[in-house]
Amino acid sequence: MRLSKSRLLAGLHYAIPLAVLLTCIFMRWQDVPFVDQLRLSVFDTYHRISPRTYEDVGVRIVDIDERSLEELGQWPWPRTRLAGLLYRLRSAGAQVVGFDIVFAEPDRTSPARVVNDWPSGPDTDKIKALADNLPDHDALFAQFIRGTGQVVTAIQLTTKKIDKLPRQIGNFSVSGEAGRTLSDFIPVLPGAAKNLDAIEDAASGNALVNVSPEQDGIVRRVPLLAAIDHELPAIGMPVYPTLSMEMLRVLQDAPRTMNVRMSGASGSERWTQSQGIEAIRVGAVTIPTDHAGHMWVHFTGHQTDRYISSADVMNDALPTGSLQNKVVLVGTSAAGLLDLRSTPLDRVLPGVEVHAEMLEQMILEHFLTRPYWAAEAETIALLILGLFFVLAVPRLGAIWPAVIGSSLALGAITFSWWAYSSQLLLIDPAYPLISLLAVYLATSSIGFMRTEGERRQVRSAFANYLSPALVEQLARHPDRLKLGGETRDMTLMFCDVRGFTAISEGFKSNPQGLTRLINRLLTPLTDCILRREGTIDKYMGDCIMAFWNAPLDVENHAHQACESALAMRRALDELNIERQTEATNENSPFLPLNVGIGINCGDCLVGNMGSDQRFDYSVLGDAVNLASRLEGQSKNYGVDIVLGEAIAKRVEEDFAILELDLIAVKGKSEAVHIHALLGDARLQNSDGFALHRNAHQNMINAYRAQNWDEAKALLDQCREMSCTTDNSGPLDGLYVLYEERIRLFRATPPPTDWNGVFVAISK
Question: pTM (2 decimals)?
Answer without folding.
Answer: 0.58
